[in-house]
Design a protein that fits this description.
Blueprint lengths: L6 E2 L4 E2 L27 H12 L2 H12 L4 H22 L1 H6 L3 H9 L3 H35 L1 H4 L13 H17 L8 H25 L14 H23 L3 H4 L6 H33 L6 H11 L3 H37 L6 H14 L9 H29 L26 H11 L3 H9 L7 H8 L1 H19 L11 E2 L9 E3 L6 E3 L8 E2 L2
Antiparallel strand pairs: 1-3, 2-6, 4-5
Helix pairs in contact: 1-9, 1-12, 2-3, 2-12, 2-16, 3-10, 3-12, 5-6, 5-16, 6-8, 6-13, 6-14, 6-15, 6-16, 9-12, 9-14, 10-16, 13-14, 14-15, 16-17, 16-20, 17-20, 18-19
GO molecular function, one term: nucleobase transmembrane transporter activity
Subcellular location: Membrane
InterPro entries: Pur-cyt_permease (IPR001248), Uracil/uridine/allantoin_perm (IPR045225)
Length: about 550
């Protein structure tokens, strides 16, 4: 089904001094993963996709589309199609990790060039800052629910912050506690996260199923309510496409960097089936539970509460009995652990690795993660989720910026490079590397990104500024389907540009060996002069025939 892993003769086994210094282009965090760290089995990837699929974001996103005018069937269908698309992107972008045990930064170098990868990584990190901040804010809200359930004084705490702050005193306290807990979790090495993911998936599954059962039993079932607002049939069609685009856009950000996780895998089969099955199934099930529970809550209380953590806060205020407090406490614990895990697997580790590739001599994964956390906390993420329409627009914006990157990366690796990389050249910052392109920039990739992002910009700006009435509906609808425009458009444009002007090393072909080589795990001293040099530079390392 899949091509056999066969490596060019350039990939000889290397004797490495792990205590050597880092360089401008390499450190151990962005070099191929050593065999002893390839610990991820099918359980790890099941936990990864289960953790991503059963989340506050999926529940809130499906319910927010109800509040935005879609009926239940359309909202759930949009979630399903969007999740399938994002998981297909994950499948295509995971191959470099499986094949070469290299992560997303190297995919960016191979496609956009040594310096062009800086643009990709900075753009991707910008998206991560916002998404991390949103997940952290919701984690802080979950902690506020826990404290409210345990301490009556906290539940009735007076808000001392002005309305302009956009956050209450309770929420701020919970947010600070989340920061403390999450920061301590960041020091766990990615290869050791399996137990954390396992505990999280048990906790969040019990929470979501329990909240769904509570809503159904309390309301004696649920009548799936009609849309909350009346919209025309043409508007409904584009709202469905917007639902698909928002879901695909939200998860393409993590899908494009799948190789950051698959580089730790023990086998291909441990990865593939969970990308193609576990991801879409868990997202769709969670979305269905969210839609049904939101409908039941609206029947009971007359308002559609699209965020499950907000629902817990509402229930505590409505009924502060021991039963409600106990239920809210355990549900809060489930959502809190989920938000910690989601930020670890979707944002912290990956963004830390990306930042490490910018300045590998000074930044490792942990330092990069700390930088991401600091920025994510300072951007006041609660302002991005005030209303369901704002939340959907934010997710569409993610797709607008990231989907062209995904389209270009997939075409370059699978169609242009034929899955062949010249690994040593990924760590060479000079014209001797086939990934140097034009002064370190692949103009084809940058042109494809720019040409497919600009049609979405007018609608994006109008939506964010709240001035959609001043712009043609065509521009607004283009933004509503930003993921489709970006991914498909960039893929086609990049492929055509590569046909017109083939990039260097298209594809890279040498004599092949049937046995995988020992991967590079660090830097070492040069054999002759004793100076430190990157192990990835074949001129500076001792090579051994396999």
């Amino acid at each position: 089904m899949f091509p056999k892993l066969r490596l060019p003769r350039t990939f000889h086994s290397v004797v490495v001094n792990k205590d050597a210094h880092d360089t401008r282009w390499a450190n151990p965090d962005i070099l191929p993963v050593a065999p002893e760290q390839q610990q991820y089995t099918w359980r790890a990837f099941f936990g990864y996709w289960f953790t991503i699929g059963m989340t506050t974001t999926v529940w809130a996103l499906s319910s927010s589309h109800l509040a935005n005018g879609l009926d239940a069937g359309a909202a759930i269908g949009g979630i399903f199609v969007g999740s399938v698309l994002s998981c297909l992107v994950a499948f295509f972008c995971s191959e470099p990790g499986i094949r070469y045990h290299l992560g997303f930064p190297m995919m960016s170098r191979a496609t956009f060039g040594m310096y062009g990868s800086y643009f990709v990584i900075i753009l991707k990190c910008f998206v991560n800052f916002i998404f991390f901040g949103i997940q952290s804010f919701w984690g802080g809200q979950a902690m506020a629910v826990i404290l409210s359930a345990v301490f009556p004084s906290f539940a009735h705490m007076e808000n001392t912050l002005p309305e302009s702050a956009g956050i209450t005193t309770q929420q701020l306290v919970g947010f600070v506690i989340y920061i403390v807990v999450f920061t301590s979790m960041m020091f766990i090495h990615p290869s050791k996260l399996q137990p954390v993911l396992f505990f999280s998936q048990i906790a969040i599954a019990a929470t979501i199923v329990g909240l769904f059962i509570w809503a159904m039993s309390t309301n004696h079932g649920a009548t799936i309510l009609p849309p909350s607002k009346s919209i025309s049939s043409s508007e409904r069609s584009f709202r469905i496409l917007q639902a698909i685009s928002s879901v695909a856009g939200a998860w393409t950000g993590s899908a494009i960097r799948q190789s950051d996780w698959t580089r730790y895998t023990k086998s291909r089969n441990a990865v593939v089936w969970h990308q193609l099955i576990t991801g879409p199934v868990t997202m769709t099930v969670c979305a269905t539970f969210g839609v049904a529970a939101t409908s039941a809550v609206k029947e009971m209380y007359g308002t559609a509460i699209w965020n499950p953590i907000t629902l817990l806060q509402f229930l505590i205020k409505e009924d502060y009995s021991s039963t409600t407090r106990a239920g809210a406490f355990f549900a809060g614990v489930g959502f809190f652990t989920s938000q910690v895990s989601v930020n670890l697997v979707q944002n912290s580790v990956s963004c830390g690795m990306d930042l490490a590739s910018l300045l590998p001599k000074y930044i490792d994964v942990t330092r990069g993660s700390l930088i991401m956390c600091l920025v994510g906390y300072l951007i006041q993420p609660w302002r991005f989720v005030e209303q369901p329409g704002t939340f959907i627009a934010v997710l569409n914006a993610f797709g607008m910026f990231v989907s062209p990157l995904a389209g270009v990366n997939c075409v370059d690796f699978w169609l242009i490079r034929k899955m062949n990389w010249k690994i040593p050249d990924l760590y060479r910052g000079d014209s001797g590397s086939i990934y140097w392109y034009t002064y370190g920039w692949n103009w084809r990739a940058l042109a494809a990104w720019a040409l497919t992002i600009w049609p979405c910009f007018p609608g994006f700006i109008a939506t964010v500024s709240g001035k959609t009435n001043s712009l043609s509906v065509g521009w607004i609808r283009t933004f509503q389907v930003a993921w489709v425009v970006g991914f498909c458009g960039a893929a086609v444009v990049y492929y055509i540009l590569c046909l017109i002007s083939p990039p260097p090393g298209k594809p890279y072909v040498l004599e092949y060996l049937d046995t995988p080589a020992t991967v590079i795990v660090g830097t070492r001293a040069s054999v002759e002069d004793g100076k430190m040099g990157p192990a990835a530079d074949v001129a500076d390392v001792e090579k051994q025939d396999l």
